[in-house]
């Protein structure tokens, strides 16, 4: 079968460059029967003229061809396994075969991690990445993009969702003909899982992240939402929770280059558009916190710049894939150009995080929650003319987009302000029995020390009250926050957590997380209960709010009488409450509970956050590090 074997199989390790020549010789080769046909390096999407996107097996078949043809520039690495048992694979592209993170970091060569297919109906980035890899190592038209940078590409992150393949997975989207499903096999949205890290895919990602510690991260998507002219939109965070040098670089170097370079390649590009009202762009664009349940918000906490790519669902598949390609190309051009600045900035961010964690500063203000401060600037919005009529089907407004371009100036919010901040402690101490909470800390790559023996002591913590849960599960959990996806059932509240001093018990083996480490910001967001994606917010501490012992009414009657007889001030308080609060006065249960809560039988641990904020490590029986 030698004559019919595909010629790429014979492209030896040192002859990858020849692929270009072979391509050029394609026509001539066809006329010579004794020579094999030139290899066809078109990607599966290109071969179908962008009608289709390849399945998991076909994707890696193409990638293996690339690796075989350019083994000194490309390598595959397995980084985990999905719930259904599929291998999670990254492609590493490096100009000289340096495939180890330590060597790349030592040479100050920035590592760029591109993540595709987290939502496996959104395939643009995957097909763009295949073409880009080909153009780096086979045609070598884009070989220069590896001059300083090394590229690590996750082609199919949500591999199980990817193989839930069908024509009816993306109702709003214009091609490809079939694609995968948004969530993974447990129906969890991986792009809500970065902090709680429940899915096997997330655990694999975190191992990959900690092994490579990339200098820049890109997550590729296809947007939903209103119709407009832009085919390529991107998001990057520059708020007060971002290191100033990184924010400055994103604002003044990265974003302007992406905009001009992608536009010069023929695309209509803009920063991500969040409309106040999707049916009425004139109301303007909003800005919101990017919390760490999302990939980009999480990477921010890891001290690295993150970029979100969102192509527009209604543009044809070719436009979107090529737009994604140009976007990734532009990002890599900036990374190569600014390689030293990027590497230095990231190292300084790590060093600043570690330095801040070495001492306890009660005046420090670490931002946990942010929202728009209302500042706006005029934005020239390139939309489509739309007619709005009353719909006899929905009974509401019906928006009908034409494809007639229109331009209008709308207000765009520009600035986030900090609405909740804390002074981080020197370390957190988590009682040994909260194993899931500790396990997540470790998954994030945080250094966790253990206590050698039981310890009891007075620590800073919180007492939380007024907590409400979302009526329906969110990402499989009973959460304390109302996510935008919560819809009409969103009635939740993280309540009020008030700083408190309490004597808590920490059994031997309790986890101590010092904040003088590079991922300290992740620990703070996980363990400060009022952070938007804390363990508390995600429901990992729900059981602390449950009352487990109850007083019988006839027992409480006796106790209450006894308490009233001994305490004149309590009697006065009770009577005032009866006079002022009708609901209280009308409820026998509430009236008895008033006394139970004030009796020594009441469980003081209800609502008491069991994690301690240590402002000193003196007296903490830390086990010697192994
Ligand atoms: Zn998406």
Structural commentary:
The chain is of the alpha+beta class. Helices cover 31% and strands 20% of the residues. The strands form 5 sheets. It has an 8-stranded mixed beta sheet with strand order 1-2-4-3-5-8-6-7, with helices on both faces. It is globular. The site of zinc ion has 3 residues, from loops.
| Strand ordering within the main sheet | 1-2-4-3-5-8-6-7
Helix content: 25-40%
pLDDT < 50 stretches: 1-30
Q: What class do helices, strands and sheet pairing give?
A: alpha+beta
- First-last Cα distance: 58 Å
Bound molecules: zinc ion
Question: Total number of β-strand segments?
Answer: 18
Largest sheet: 8 strands, mixed
How much strand content do the residues show?
15-25%
Q: What's the Cα radius of gyration?
A: 29 Å
Mean of residue pLDDT values: 92
Q: Estimate the global geometry from the Cα principal axes.
A: globular
Given the structure, what is the number of helices?
18
């Amino acid at each position: 079968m030698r004559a019919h074997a595909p010629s790429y199989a014979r492209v030896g390790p040192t002859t990858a460059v020849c692929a270009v020549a072979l391509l050029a010789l394609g026509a001539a080769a066809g006329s010579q029967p004794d020579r094999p046909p030139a290899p066809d390096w078109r990607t599966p999407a290109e071969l179908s003229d962008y009608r289709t996107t390849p399945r998991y097996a076909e994707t890696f078949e193409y990638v293996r061809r690339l690796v075989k043809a350019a083994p000194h520039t490309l390598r595959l690495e397995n980084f985990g396994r999905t719930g259904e048992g599929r291998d999670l694979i990254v492609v590493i592209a490096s100009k000289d075969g340096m495939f180890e993170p330590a060597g790349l970091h030592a040479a100050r060569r920035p590592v760029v991690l591109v993540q595709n297919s987290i939502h496996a109906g959104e395939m643009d980035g995957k097909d763009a990445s295949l073409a880009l890899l080909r153009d780096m190592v086979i045609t070598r038209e884009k070989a220069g993009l590896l001059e300083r940078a090394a590229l690590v590409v996750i082609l199919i992150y949500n591999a199980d969702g990817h193989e839930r393949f069908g024509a009816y997975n993306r109702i709003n989207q214009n091609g490809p003909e079939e694609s995968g499903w948004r969530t993974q096999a447990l129906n969890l949205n991986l792009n809500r899982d970065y902090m709680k890290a429940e899915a096997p895919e997330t655990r694999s990602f975190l191992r990959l992240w900690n092994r490579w510690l990339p200098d820049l991260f890109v997550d590729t998507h296809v947007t939903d939402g209103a119709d407009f002219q832009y085919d390529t939109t991107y998001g990057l965070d520059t708020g007060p929770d971002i290191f100033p040098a990184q924010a400055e670089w994103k604002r003044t170097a990265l974003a302007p280059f992406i905009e001009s370079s992608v536009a010069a390649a023929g695309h209509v590009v803009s920063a991500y558009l969040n409309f106040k009202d999707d049916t009425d762009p004139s109301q303007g664009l909003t800005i919101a916190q990017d919390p760490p349940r999302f990939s980009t918000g999480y990477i921010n906490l890891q001290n690295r710049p993150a970029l979100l790519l969102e192509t527009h669902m209604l543009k044809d598949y070719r436009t979107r894939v090529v737009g994604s390609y140009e976007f990734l190309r532009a990002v890599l051009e900036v990374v190569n150009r600014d390689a030293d600045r990027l590497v230095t900035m990231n190292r300084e961010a790590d060093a600043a995080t570690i330095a801040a964690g070495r001492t306890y500063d009660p005046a420090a203000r670490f931002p946990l929650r942010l929202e728009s401060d209302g500042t706006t600037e005029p934005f020239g919005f390139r939309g489509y003319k739309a007619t709005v009529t009353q719909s006899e089907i929905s009974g509401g407004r019906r928006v009908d987009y034409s494809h007639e371009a229109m331009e209008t100036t709308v207000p765009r919010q520009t600035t986030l302000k900090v609405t909740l901040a804390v002074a981080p402690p020197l370390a957190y101490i988590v009682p040994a029995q909260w194993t899931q909470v500790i396990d997540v800390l470790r998954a994030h790559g945080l250094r966790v020390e253990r206590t050698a023996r039981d310890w009891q002591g007075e620590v800073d913590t919180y007492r939380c009250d007024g907590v409400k849960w979302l009526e329906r599960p969110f990402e499989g959990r009973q959460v304390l926050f109302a996510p935008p996806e919560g819809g009409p059932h969103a009635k939740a509240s993280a309540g009020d957590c008030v700083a408190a001093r309490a004597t808590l018990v920490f059994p031997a083996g309790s986890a101590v997380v010092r904040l003088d480490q590079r991922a300290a910001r992740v620990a703070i967001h996980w363990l400060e209960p009022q952070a938007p994606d804390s363990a508390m917010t995600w429901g990992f501490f729900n059981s602390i709010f449950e009352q487990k012992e109850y007083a019988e009414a006839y027992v409480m009657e006796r106790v209450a009488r006894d308490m009233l007889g001994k305490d004149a001030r309590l009697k006065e308080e009770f009577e005032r409450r009866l006079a002022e609060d009708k609901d209280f006065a009308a409820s026998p249960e509430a009236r008895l509970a008033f006394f139970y809560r004030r009796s020594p039988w009441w469980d003081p641990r209800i609502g008491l956050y069991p994690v301690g904020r240590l402002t000193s490590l003196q007296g903490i029986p830390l086990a010697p590090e192994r």
